[in-house]
Write a structure and sequence with these properties.
Radius of gyration: 20 Å
Number of helices: 8
Low-confidence stretches: none
Strand order of the largest sheet: 3-4-2-5-1-6-7-8-14
Number of domains: 2
CATH architecture of the largest domain: 3-Layer(aba) Sandwich
Helix content: 25-40%
Strand content: 15-25%
């Protein structure tokens, strides 16, 4: 909601009682779920939760990709669990394979699987997902994509990703603001990763766009400085559009869709087929079956400081 990221108005305060109720309910829920997590059997391997305290796109997915690739380079065998938002399967836990579709597992898990090839398990109940991943897959560390507020899941390391541009908006709890938990929650986590802006006490993450790739998987190259259309169904579409402007693409039309939107061919009738169409990597996994030859997606790689990788690796080693 745009008013979350604007100065507070008088009518926004009408939502204040609901934010107080949200705070009470979330605190009681946390106490109950954490008590249950103490009773659950502990898995043999470390569990890292990557999440946020605000709604909307913060850059968790590029960070999870970086984290997995860094761990693999250090000899670890990571696996990922997700609730699979936007997908619906007839069975859970769901272990992804080459044939798994976004409508089953959700767009983000499918994208992560295609990019990384590591074991990924989807289940609305993350405790079940973690247990299944550790039972049937050859892994030695678990990463949960989101799930900071899933307190039934015991965890060893918490990492919060923050949008460096929007930060925490008006710093109010839902529905008055974008926060899922109070800002004081940040004092409890192990690391705060700032997406795009330097901030004291936070780890700066930079997102580096890579050369565009065809959605239909063929080998080709899209030159820059050409006129294009673009779309995005992510938490913060403007960040994607801005990145295209930053690469000097000439944008004819840009259309944001709701986060995790389930694309259909009819959604693209508003775009001219004469121009290339650019989308995010997450969008591409939902469109490859009906993609035209001039549809492209923009891969994003996260860049983080070496000293952060060293600190995180040391924290993991200290767990053993």
């Amino acid at each position: 909601m745009t008013f979350w990221y604007q100065p507070l108005t008088w009518w926004a305060w009408a939502l204040y009682p609901f934010s107080l109720l949200f705070l009470v309910v979330s605190k009681v829920r946390r106490i109950i779920l954490q008590a249950s997590s103490q009773k659950q059997s502990q898995v043999a391997h470390p569990v890292i939760v990557v999440g946020n305290i605000s709604v909307g796109g913060n850059g968790k997915t590029p960070f999870v990709i970086w984290l997995c690739e860094m761990l693999i380079s250090e000899g670890y065998k990571p696996g990922i669990v997700s609730r699979g938002y936007g997908g619906k399967s007839n069975r859970y836990p769901l272990l992804l394979n080459e044939d798994t579709q976004g409508k089953e597992a959700g767009d983000e898990p499918v994208m992560l699987y295609k990019r990384l090839g590591v074991p990924i398990v989807v289940d609305p109940n993350r405790v079940n997902a973690v247990n299944y991943l550790n039972e049937v897959c050859d892994i030695d560390i678990t990463i949960t994509d989101d799930g900071l507020q899933h307190y039934a899941l015991a965890r060893d390391i918490e990492i919060v990703v923050v949008d460096g541009q929007r930060r925490f908006g008006n710093q109010k709890l839902m529905p008055m603001g974008p926060l899922r938990e109070p800002l004081s929650r940040l004092k409890e986590v192990d690391f705060i990763v700032n997406n795009g802006e330097a901030a004291e006490g936070e780890v700066t993450m930079l997102l580096a766009p890579q050369p565009c790739k065809p959605v239909n998987g063929r080998e080709a190259c899209l030159p820059k400085l050409v006129k294009v259309n673009c779309c995005a169904a992510i938490g913060y579409p403007q960040r994607f559009f801005d990145s295209l402007y930053g690469q000097h693409y000439k944008i004819e039309k840009q259309i944001p869709f709701a986060d995790h939107h389930a694309y259909e061919e009819a959604d693209f009738a508003q775009f001219s087929t004469a121009l290339p169409l650019l989308m995010t990597e997450k969008d591409a996994v939902k469109c490859h079956q009906f993609a035209l030859p001039n549809w492209w997606y923009l891969p994003i790689d996260a860049q983080l400081p070496d000293n952060f990788a060293h600190q995180l690796l040391q924290k993991i080693k200290d767990l053993k």
